[in-house]
DNA sequence: GTAAACTTTGCAAACGTTTGCATAAAAATT
DNA sequence: AATTTTTATGCAAACGTTTGCAAAGTTTAC
């Protein structure tokens, strides 16, 4: 019993055709007659033929595969982006290899190398918090393989970038708090090695300045935006008077943690302190009081990423496209955590 | 300027060695002297050599890649599973291709074929809600490629299965409601084509029976467990008297929706109706009142999946392992939505 | 000093495709 | 009827590795 899996050679022999004809027939090459195509396809089905993508990729240098590297696929924003990218790519016949760096630089390097080794035709990346050396991507630039950075993007690396308007996000979030009456606003950001947080910080500063509020170094904090770190910062911030009257947390996990801390500590939100988060994680809508957050339109971003990759893959003179920046607008979603109205019966969103 | 990327042939020429020696040197084959290995590796670095996984995979029939198919990577449970699988596989030098079927049977078939075409060395699958024909997996069985189903698993397809104890989950959730005083418990499940829901339903029925509560057909509902469908069911259930005093929702999105509906409609949870969800989605802990849910230990499951794949890959006589079932225990996590105590000051979990 | 054993390297085929070029056959043009 | 054009097919090399086998070189054993 021949357990060996069938190849186009088997089809060719069975039909007394050459392998080249079979190959072309299966790929719907225009030079092959309809009759032959039918015969070949029928025989392929009969023999249970399965194409070997490795062989095809090796020979043609086209793997029909895209690589995606994100910090963590279980976080809301990257998860949403990944979902949509995958679906869009599937529509155009590309496979996606999703990888997560776990915010480890070493893992990112390893993954990028592995993806190159797999000869992906394009790469989309949101870097770790600590990636400042981008030389592991050089090979992609050298070989002219489409390379798109999104969300967390390099600061000084000439490449295609698609990112949210983090400056505006920071600005609007802060100004919103000011509009609602805050005068003493804490900023909690991730490490400044990461593009996102420098931008959001700039926006924060600009809003303060516009409204003639002094920037105080003691009111800004930087650390990985985990629950544990957020709690520590809460201890510092609320451990001594005067309490701030507003907190701008640059991710939603942090915003949620602060809200819970305040609830526990008997600090009323939004009456005593108002909170704004970032990313519009579904949890912000569910918690009580619901949390104002900055929506980054992940689906728009994902669509743009796929579009950019496809453009670059099809481009004849690719170099031209490579160094542009696309900025996706953001939108502040106002909820109860920053409300200035009298508290009224809470209403769930329809 | 030679832009062509370097191969082991280039290294061999440079060093006046044969390609076979170079290949073996790079793979740390024991027959190669340490001295040669060093020379080869140094030269590889110098030339900027990058291995071609397609070529290696083609020749050796070992792609060092695993495929994963889940319904949707942005949902809590599959996202968590994917994250851990990816990390575990990375540790042992395997790549992972994550795919989502979007609960479409056609897409599942297409993805499975693509993964076979990519010659993955193993496949882990959680099926769509509607997969009842599993013939697209036959090729993996025929070719003896490790195949592991998890969570949503086939009912009549002889294969390795790792799943949560959904029967017990259904039983404990229901019994818990009964213990808390419920006598009229609504069950909301997904389509019965999916293994999960038949099991959970059996558990529900068993708990009713044990406590001598009659099973009423009018109190069970089946539909895709989306927010929209949950709202419709709410209309039916709460649109007429008598209201049930308990609801067992077999996923957390549904549980959350019901809670919000009740809040809106002025039905007090848990006083008038108690709610239990399924999966222990982080949102259940955050919402007020927090929702009792069944934890499925996704990390344990993910670890078992990877372990099973690795065992199967290394197995000499693979057939033996193939048809076993592993059942991961579940745990009911009690929260406020099913509490029978007097309402007291709400306390956030530490 | 010769045989046996071991270590290290090389030869060449193989993996399953794709593709440039040549060619045969058929159709269209003169 | 001869020539050109078009259509359909085949030949053979190539993609970059891995690997069974042979062989050369070195060490060990008697």
Number of domains of chain A: 3
- Compute the CA-based radius of gyration of chain A: 26 Å
State mean pLDDT of chain A (0 to 100 scale). 93
Structural class of chain A: alpha/beta
Unreliable stretches covering 5 or more consecutive residues of chain A: 343-350
Which percent range describes the beta-strand content of chain A? Answer: 5-15%
Q: Quaternary status of these chains? A: homodimer
Approximately how much helix is present in the residues of chain A? Answer: 40-55%
Distance between the termini of chain A: 62 Å
Say how many strands of chain A there are: 12
**What fold name goes in the CATH topology slot of the largest domain in chain A?**
Rossmann fold
Write down the CATH class of the largest domain in chain A: Alpha Beta
Order of helices and strands of chain A: HHHHEHEHEHEEHEHEHEHEHEHEE
Number of helices of chain A: 13
Largest interface: A-B, 55 and 55 residues
Task: Write structural notes for this entry.
The structure is a homodimer of 350-residue chains. Chain A is α/β, with parallel strands linked by helices. Chain A has three domains: 8-51, Orthogonal Bundle (434 Repressor (Amino-terminal Domain)), CATH 1.10.260; 62-165 and 298-328, Response regulator (Rossmann fold, 3-Layer(aba) Sandwich), CATH 3.40.50.2300; 166-295 and 331-347, 3-Layer(aba) Sandwich (Rossmann fold), CATH 3.40.50. Helices cover 43% and strands 14% of the residues of chain A. In chain A, the strands form three sheets. In chain A, strands 2-1-3-4-5-11 form a six-stranded parallel beta sheet, sandwiched between helices. In chain A, strand 3 (122-125), helix 7 (138-142) and strand 4 form a beta-alpha-beta unit. In chain A, helix 5 (76-91) crosses helix 13 (298-314) and helix 8 runs parallel beside helix 9. The longest helix of chain A has 17 residues, at 298-314. Chain A binds a DNA duplex (30 and 30 nucleotides) through residues 7-9, 17-21, 23-24, 27, 30-33, 36, 51-61.
